[in-house]
Amino acid sequence: MLKIHSLYIRYSDKTIVNDFSINVEEGEVVSIIGPNGSGKSTILKGVTGLIPCKSGQICIANQEANLLNNKQISKLMCMLCQGNVSPVDMTVGELISYGRMPHKKWYERMDAEDFEIIEWALMKTGMLNFKDRLVSSLSGGEAQKAWLAMALAQCPKVLLLDEPTTYLDIAHQLEVLDLVRSLNRELKLTVVMVLHDLNHASTYSDKVCVIKKGSVQTYGRPQDVLTQELIRSVYGVETEIEQLPNNARPRIHVLHKI
């Protein structure tokens, strides 16, 4: 569904992303993890075209991204950045309607199908009763779900999430990640997200991509990837790994910095 091959991204004379390659299958949830400054968010921005890539190949649903225009890419892929901001007088319903823009010509009005999709997105995210509320009046968790509803209304095949739990308390972090996983399973939506919490990555991901200084260190199932040795070499911390029976996902306990 999403194939990235030999992606290089540079700022001025500094290489931020170095020969990054990953293959995400349809319906998978993949988390990109790594230390601060390792290039996680930069990769997502490069994939969506928000920042230019020096070289590399990106394919979305078997289509080369460099052969598609912005509207075509937006029909296939949606990205939610950190700290999304809307006008103070915008309602939730109005925000979600922007998800339909890639599917409309500049002169076209919203039709019955668009409004049906908006209602569906509200319902799927549990935001139906918030339709007429101002986005600026929502709590952090509610606002994040409103933005997810907007992304759903776009009807993408691939959803990119840049640290979707930033600024949320523990309960709302789990609520948002549970919603993402539920949408992934029900809609077969392919999800690639940047996370900091290793246990969240372990619990909610089919695969984990670990990067350091812009390069892939390892990529695979959480139970294969998240080892003491890997975490020590990438993060510089000692951990205990609680490996549950039946090949379950590992639980990571951070002990101390090396």
TrEMBL record:
Any single Pfam family the record assigns to this protein: ABC_tran
Domain named ABC transporter: residues: 2-238
Top-level taxon of the source organism: Bacteria
Main location class: membrane
Keyword terms of this UniProt record: ATP-binding, Cell membrane, Ion transport, Iron, Iron transport, Membrane, Nucleotide-binding, Transport
Compartments, as annotated in UniProt: Cell membrane
CDD domains in the record: ABC_Iron-Siderophores_B12_Hemin
GO CC annotation terms, alphabetical: plasma membrane
Annotated GO biological process: iron ion transport
Keyword field contains Transport: yes
GO molecular function: ATP binding; ATP hydrolysis activity
Membrane topology classification: Peripheral membrane protein
UniProt-listed InterPro entries: AAA+_ATPase, ABC_transporter-like_ATP-bd, ABC_transporter-like_CS, P-loop_NTPase, Siderophore_ABC-ATPase
PANTHER family, per database record: IRON(3+)-HYDROXAMATE IMPORT ATP-BINDING PROTEIN FHUC (PTHR42771)
This protein's name: ABC transporter ATP-binding protein
Organism of origin: Paenibacillus anaericanus
